[in-house]
Amino acid sequence: MKDVTQSILDWFKEAKPNPTIRDIATQIGCHFEEVAEMLEATNNVNDETKNFADFYKQGYGTDNVDYFNKQELLDSLCDQVVTAIGVGYMMGFDIIGALSEVNNSNWSKFENGKAIFDENGKIKKGVNYFKPDLTKFIKE
């Protein structure tokens, strides 16, 4: 079985073989959207994070991309992956199994092997989309 992280990367490569600055902004917005969902899940609603998500997903901030500190950004992204796995482990989640389930769900968004996009360039749910069932990965 292919490593789940490689499969996730393959999903992005299939969806966006040549990412533009606008695609980068959209993905940053999607990342902030997930951070906002984490804050909501931990009962720490944060409208500012939601605003960052919308700002980037709507294509604003594209003029900053060239000025990002790429080394610090990469370090931060790697640390976020590591700490996310750590939180999952500490909570007793089967984080690898859940990640695989979410990845399979993401692949189900494609139609005829191709990604479809909304007006902001975010990948939409296709007709064969299925929501990931994460209940089996939570230890009660």
What does it look like?
The structure is a single chain. With 140 residues, the chain is mostly helical. Helix content is 56%, strand content 0%. It contains 5 helices and no strands. Helix 1 (4-15) packs parallel to helix 5 (95-107). The longest helix has 21 residues, at 21-41. The chain is globular, with a radius of gyration of 16 Å. The relative contact order is 0.14. The model has no long low-confidence stretch (mean pLDDT 91).
Write the layout of secondary structure elements.
Blueprint: H1 4-15, H2 21-41, H3 47-57, H4 70-90, H5 95-107
Describe the structure concisely for a colleague.
With 140 residues, the protein is mostly helical. Helices cover 56% and strands 0% of the residues.
List keywords for this structure.
mainly alpha; 140 residues
| Beta-strand content | under 5%
Summarize model confidence as the mean pLDDT. Answer: 91
Helical/strand content category: mainly alpha
Number of strands: 0
Low-confidence stretches: none
SSE ordering:
HHHHH
Count of helices? 5
- Helix % is 55-70%
